[in-house]
Amino acid sequence: MWITCENLAGIPLNLVEKQCSLTLFNIELALSIMYIINMKELLLKYGCNPNQTPARVYMEHGELPITVLNGRPGYINLLDALNGWQLVKELSSATSLPAATSFKHVSPAGAAVGRPLSDTLKKIYYTEDVELTPLACAYARARGADRMSSFGDFIALSAPCDKATALLIKKEVSDGIIAPSYDAEALEILKAKKKGAYCILQIDPSYTPDNIERKQVFGITFEQGHNFVNINEDCLKNIVTKNKTLTTEESQNLIISLIILKYTQSNSVCYVKDGQAIGIGAGQQSRIHCTRLAGDKADKWWLRQSSKVLELPFKADIKRADRDNTIDVYTSDDYEDVLAEGEWQKWFTKKPDVFTREERKTWIAKNKDVAIGSDAFFPFGDNIERAHRSGACVVAQPGGSIRDDNVIEVCDKYGMTMAFTGIRLFHH
Residue 195 burial (CB < 10 Å; 0-12/13-18/19+)? Predict the structure, then answer.
């Protein structure tokens, strides 16, 4: 008899372990035993690293809200999945649009809501051969924000995965996905990924966590209240700059940035445009380094839309990941790494012109209408100076620095609107 996770669901683990000791299973079945769902418990192959065994997730009370439909989730996969699900659920609730995120190592590489794509975005997101749905647009935007970082991501969707979204995911290198449900065609498309090993999780959308959450570090248990803070337009009422104007579009972009930050490893800063993150700086010890990192990523996203990049004469057989990596280098000061003699021939049918620093600077200056959020206060005005260079015109941050006056002064210099939310969004 072939035993599957579905057959074993609900069987007490001690019974399974006893059966395993008495019966010889083939290797594939023995591996599947390592991640049996027992409604309350899910055994994992290992923890963050292969030497960290045993590993599992479990519920102290009630049943797990996730079901494994395909593949075998790992420890980091589940951290990404559960953080990603919370993010997209809140994004969708705040905007009434489907949402998607691309997670890597417990921070989003990108996140977005389902707004239509321009022809340029369709091209740089590699979607031209798919008839896009709103959810597919959200995923394309989330994946397209930082394609280098999204390589091998874990995806979260706020709505049932449809065929169009699955077709986009099919083309990308990804470790897994979590969604409330899957259309039959979408599920079959996703099950075929990674030679049938693609991790597909289904989450109960009605699940709400307990008020208190715990984790252990070095054998010591930490306990805190779950972060149920609700991010909405009320957070943006305290405008402290001379410019008091916030359009509906700007408000929504700021709210999106703050929700993304709520699930991004701190310190963190997020740039948002047209309903999607275009640059996320996560896990930096210095606030200005967050702002620079996120700004540099926003600049890269914008540079991909320049004619110099759109018209690059790539060879037809260049893989998507290699194309992304080549663009990343071409739009940097290290462009010689792909344009040197003997190198450019690997990627292009003819040698492209250099995208000079001055040309890049001129193009970046054309990016406008960007919103920027921060998970804690900006301590110096240099953060605003850097954000302004990447098109930021509205800002949301908690406030509370002894140098708030300096930060406000720099915003006023550029006619920017800044709201003090009074809400810190640290996440670890």
Answer: exposed
State the amino acid at position 62 in one-letter form: G
Report d(CA 301, CA 279) in Å as an integer: 8
228 phi/psi in degrees, rounded to 5: -95, 15
Yes or no: say if 266 and 358 are a contact pair by the CB < 8 Å rule.
no
Percentage, residues of the chain above pLDDT 90 = 89
Which stretches does DSSP call E strand in 244-317?
Answer: 268-273, 276-282
| Rounded mean pLDDT, 251-258 | 98
| Distance in angstroms (rounded) separating the CA atoms of residues 235 and 380 | 22
CA 411 to chain centre: 28
Backbone angles phi, psi at 248, to 5 degrees: -60, -40
H or E element at residue 371? strand 370-374
Contacts of 337 (CB under 8 A, 6+ apart): 329, 343
Side chain identity at residue 275, one-letter code: G
What is the per-residue pLDDT for 316? Answer: 94
- Mind giving me the DSSP string for 402-428? TTHHHHHHHHHHTT-EEEE--------
Hey, which residues are catalytic here? Answer: 104-105, 267, 428
Q: What is the bridge-based pairing of β-strands 199-203 and 66-70?
A: antiparallel
pLDDT one-digit tens code per residue, 265-307? 999 999 999 999 999 999 999 999 999 999 999 999 999 999 9
pLDDT above 70 coverage of the chain, percent: 91
189-215 tens-digit pLDDT: 999 999 999 999 999 999 999 999 999
The whole-angstrom distance between residue 254's C-alpha and the CA centroid of its chain comes to 17
Which two structure tokens, joined as six digits, stand for 323?
Answer: 């194309």
CB 63 within 8 A of CB 39: yes
Helix H or strand E segment including 8: helix 5-8
**What pLDDT is attached to residue 45?**
87
Sign for the pseudo-dihedral over CA of 87, 239, 394, 379:
negative
Strand partners, 176: 154, 199
* Residue of 40 and 100 predicted with greater confidence: 100
Q: How far is CA 150 from CA 103, 172, 285, in A?
A: 7, 9, 22
